TrEMBL record, chain A:
Residues 95-284 form the ABC transmembrane type-1 domain. InterPro entries: BP-dependent_transpt_permease, MetI-like, MetI-like_sf, OppC_N. Keywords: Cell membrane, Membrane, Peptide transport, Protein transport, Transmembrane, Transmembrane helix, Transport. The chain crosses the membrane at residues 34-56, 97-123, 144-169, 189-209, 221-242, 262-283. The keyword Transmembrane applies. It comes from Devosia rhodophyticola. This is ABC transporter permease. Its main location: membrane. It is found in: Cell membrane. The keyword Ubl conjugation does not apply. It is a multi-pass membrane protein. It comes from the Bacteria.
Amino acid sequence: MTLPTQSEDIRSDLRAARLAEFKSFARRFMRNPLGIVGLVIVIALLVCAAAAPLLATHDPYLPILSDRLSAPSAEYWFGADELGRDIYSRIIYGSRLTLLIVGLVIVTSAPVGLVIGAVAGNYGGWIDRIFMRITDVFLAIPKLLLALAFVAALGPGIVNAALAITLTAWPPYARLARAEALVVRNSDYVNAIRLAGASQFRIVVFHIMPMCMSSVIVRMTFDMAGIILTAAGLGFIGLGAQPPLPEWGAMISTGRKFIFDQWWVATVPGIAIFVVSLGFNLLGDAMRDLLDPHLRQRN
Amino acid sequence: MSIGKFLTRPVPPALRFVFGIGSWLLTVAITLVGLAALTFLIGRVVPIDPVLRIVGEKAPQSVYDRVFLELGLNKPLYQQFWEYLAALLRGDFGTSFSTTRPVLTDLLDFFPATLELSSLGLVLGIVFGVPMGVASAYWHEKWPDHLIRVIGLIGYSVPIFWLGLVGLFVFYFKLGWVSGPGQVDVFFQGVVPHVTGSILIDSSLAGEWEIFWNAVSHMTLPALLLGYYSLAYISRMTRSVMLDQLSREYVLTARLKGASELQVVVGHALRNAAIPLVTVVALSYGGLLEGSVLIETIFSWPGIGNYIYSSLFAADMNAVLGGTLLVGCAFVFLNMLSDVLYRTLDPRSR
């Protein structure tokens, strides 16, 4: 054992401080029952997606025509669809598609928005004006319609649907990042690195973008509910995941034909969409209460 | 930023007002051009080969070349865009492949029905949403607040097209309280002369009250759903604006002077909250125009949403993009309107 050097001391202090902060965060989170409900729903979704083969009772793609449209029973918990596939198993496997779309949209739209906003805020002037005008144009257009037109042009499919939603989802991140960058741009620490000779690239990527993270995370959680609903809407119109994929919106769309006689075919996937997007909304609400600095000051 | 800084003398207020309007109009114009650019790009650039989309894979080379030239694809992109923009300004949105009519004619035929449905939805959203938001703020963190917030959260989370299906199943099929999909019953269709395009106004103009009530019963469910959709947003925003207002000192002053609670909340706080709420209402109207796309397909409502939906399946891009452009313009217009209203209502922004 050697004596701890000063820098190690600082490091362990930092680690302790971070742990304490996390603990206080967790404690405040636990005080919000609705937030916990949201967290449980989101975790349940993750579990469903990860353990789909274990949770499913049937093959989600295997049609058993003799059982088509059978009512919910011990064999088919949520009934069977128009090809005799188990709706419960399809819902379970559908959680993977939901997560896939949400994941694709988030990992593309947040960084794109972040970069555009941070660059605009950091450079200012003409770059800022042009970038923000483009952002405003995207914000001024109805999201679902833009996504719809885009997928209609590209052709239906799950990746194209995700791309289309990305196209409509990045502007709020750009706004957020720009606002944050404008505040940070002239702060002492950024000036200090600038004087030390850091490149603009380095300043934007390593020193401005990290400052935007907490507001971006809150925004992301909220966005996920909206992304799920838009993706389901695209699936319902027939532009999202294509058959036989068990995407929830597309499942409602096929169940629509049987709504009056076999109501469960369309109803159950809708409940799944509702529960999951409610979960993300509740979680987002709780996260905003905890992370939003403006709200924290007021309390 | 403004032109005023190039002048050496202080700018007179009237002139500054003109500059303000000018730069604001410029912003709106840029947004509209941007909107057109976006639909242009989606229509001409995104499909790998727009000619193939029209002539099909098996067309001979001569046909391909002719269509290529007819579409003007040999010209540079900016020139194509310029021509597209000029055509739009002339009101030429292209021809719909499925109806073989100009897209603009189609859109103007279908738009009133959408406007009618979403306006009703908006009225319902305001009538229920604002009082709910006020109640939520007044009983902050008490049970009415929790209840109203949950109602709003459900509205935010539920897929509206699914709610429409379930609503049809319950209230039309099971209970028989409302009429099913469509604008009026089949034997009433086309009876009333098309004047404004709004079935309620047209049927009352013609004095056909039977058709009027039939239309009301068809409209109730989709309008209520759209109302719920906007209620979620309106009540949430009303709540946060009212919370802010109720914590101000003038509220305390009014109470100390012995004003009744109703007068404090409605006469003082809500009056001040009304200005930001105008913006909220304008924005939610835009959201409703969009939400009606999905609702219209469920309820076979003969509006823009249904038009876009059926054009999608005919691979009719002119119609889809025309519809997108129209609703986008309506969006921009609503934003503009809320801006103007805000400026005229709020004395501080003058």
